[in-house]
């Protein structure tokens, strides 16, 4: 029983004194439904559960005298909760904007209570249900209202409180936060994709950095994955406290070793190396680029399990243990594509300069270019059978 008590105590934010202090100054009727223990021998277990009951039981506050909505506060992890508050930061309404959010709210009704009380209970419920942990430690706080100064004050206040709540549960959180005033354009998008206004704003910022992204492709991503993408693109107009955990991924070093092994090259052979996290075809991937002897290699590796999603093999002697998981559709190698182009031009490899070979996965072709005696050669080689699809030779003056 002691271990169970300690476990519940650890995941439950210690804010009972603050809540009691608030309730003592209230004139409202407060109804709290709690189960009654059936037998005394379960007494120690009931004591351990009391802190949790404050979050998961039905709590009803009767409305405050003021019900005019002055601002909204969105809390996003994957569950999304939207609080509407009045001028005194009292909750007018709390709604879930997705199915996971409904699991978090349950039967709780915070009408008339301080926004801090609602945030405290929601974060506690997210912790208890496993939506926030050491591996996925990110969340988003969005304050939406007409008064920019008031928005900023509330944003600072809430992020500081949430950071303390996470630390009390031994979690180094990564809290993204932003304030919004004019949301007329983004609100329609949020409704269309059934996401919060804050999450829609984050996705919009990512689309500005990468035109391949869209609301449709990113709407189901967790806040944690969106946080990692924001860090990847170095988005600076979103306030960030803490660092998003990457412990659930294989890591950059492992991804690099997979790519080098598949390319059958050593680290000392490569130049112009670059690696970054991205989102492709429904999963987080490591995008790796490097050059060996002037030839460029590009790899996409599943960030969770190391599977090769896309690659450009250099020869057929690559490790069978890695190529078996590759999904590329080429039948000839880069060297073979290059030899097709050189043979057509009647030139040996040792005599060309500015050699570049790239694989276009969309068209399944190799694009080969090089220079020889003031002429620039460009080839498109079918990656299935090695046939020359297109050929250009231009004088370079």
Query: How helical, in percent, are the residues?
Result: 25-40%
Please state the overall shape, judged from the principal axes of the Cα atoms. Answer: elongated
Instruction: Give the CA-CA distance, first to last residue.
Output: 84 Å
Give the biggest sheet.
6 strands, mixed
Quote the beta fraction.
25-35%
Mean pLDDT, to the nearest integer, reads: 79
Q: Structural class, from secondary structure content?
A: alpha+beta
* Low-pLDDT stretches: 1-11, 26-66, 313-328
Radius of gyration: 28 Å
Give the number of helices: 13
The tally of beta strands, per DSSP, is 16
Strand order of the largest sheet: 5-4-3-6-7-8
What is the N-to-C order of secondary-structure elements (H for helix, E for strand)?
Answer: HHEHEEEEHHEHEHHHHEHEEEEHHEEEE
Structure commentary:
The protein is of the alpha+beta class and 397 residues long. Helix content is 35%, strand content 26%. The protein has helices spanning 2-11, 16-24, 43-56, 99-105, 115-128, 148-168, 184-192, 197-209, 215-218, 223-233, 252-263, 320-323, 334-345, and strands spanning 30-32, 59-61, 71-76, 80-85, 91-96, 138-145, 174-180, 239-241, 271-280, 283-292, 295-302, 308-310, 353-360, 365-372, 375-382, 388-395. Strands 5-4-3-6-7-8 form a 6-stranded mixed β-sheet, sandwiched between helices. The chain has a 4-stranded antiparallel β-sheet with strand order 9-10-11-12. A 4-stranded antiparallel β-sheet has the order 13-14-15-16, with helices on one face. Helix 5 (115-128) packs parallel to helix 6, helix 7 (184-192) crosses helix 8 (197-209) and helix 8 packs parallel to helix 10. The protein is elongated and about 85 Å long. 34% of the residues are buried.
């Amino acid at each position: 029983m002691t271990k169970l008590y300690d476990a519940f105590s650890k995941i439950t934010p210690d804010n009972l004194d603050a809540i009691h202090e608030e309730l003592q100054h209230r004139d409202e009727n407060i109804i709290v439904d709690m189960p009654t223990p059936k037998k005394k021998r379960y007494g120690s277990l009931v004591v351990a559960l009391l802190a949790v009951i404050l979050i998961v039981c039905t709590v009803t506050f009767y409305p405050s005298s003021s019900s005019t909505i002055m601002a909204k506060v969105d809390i996003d992890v994957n569950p999304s909760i939207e609080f509407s508050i009045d001028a005194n930061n009292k909750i007018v309404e709390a709604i879930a904007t997705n199915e996971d959010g409904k699991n978090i709210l349950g039967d709780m009704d915070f009408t008339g209570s301080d926004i801090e009380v609602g945030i405290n209970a929601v974060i506690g419920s997210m912790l208890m249900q496993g939506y926030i942990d050491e591996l996925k430690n990110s969340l988003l706080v969005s304050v939406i209202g007409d008064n920019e100064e008031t928005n900023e004050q509330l944003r600072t206040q809430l992020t500081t409180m949430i950071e303390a709540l996470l630390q009390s549960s031994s979690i180094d959180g990564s809290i993204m936060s932003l304030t919004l005033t004019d949301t007329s354009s983004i609100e329609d998008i949020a409704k269309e994709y059934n996401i919060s206004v804050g999450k829609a704003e984050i996705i919009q910022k990512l689309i500005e950095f990468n035109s391949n992204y869209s609301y449709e492709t990113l709407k189901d991503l967790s806040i944690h994955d969106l946080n990692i993408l924001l860090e990847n693109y170095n988005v600076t107009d979103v306030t960030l406290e803490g660092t998003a955990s990457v412990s659930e991924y294989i890591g950059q070093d492992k991804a690099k070793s997979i790519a080098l092994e598949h390319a059958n090259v050593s680290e000392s052979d490569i130049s112009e190396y670059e690696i970054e996290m991205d989102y492709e075809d429904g999963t987080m991937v490591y995008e790796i680029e490097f050059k060996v002897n002037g030839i460029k290699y590009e790899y996409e590796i599943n960030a969770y399990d190391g599977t090769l999603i896309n690659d450009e093999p250099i020869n057929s002697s690559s490790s069978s243990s890695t190529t078996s998981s590759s999904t590329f559709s080429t039948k000839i190698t880069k060297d073979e594509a290059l030899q097709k182009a050189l043979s057509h031009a009647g030139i040996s490899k040792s005599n060309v300069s500015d050699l570049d070979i790239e694989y276009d996965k969309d068209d399944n072709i190799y694009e080969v270019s090089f220079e020889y005696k003031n002429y620039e050669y460009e080839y498109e080689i079918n990656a299935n059978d090695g046939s020359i699809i297109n050929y250009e030779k231009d004088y370079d003056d």
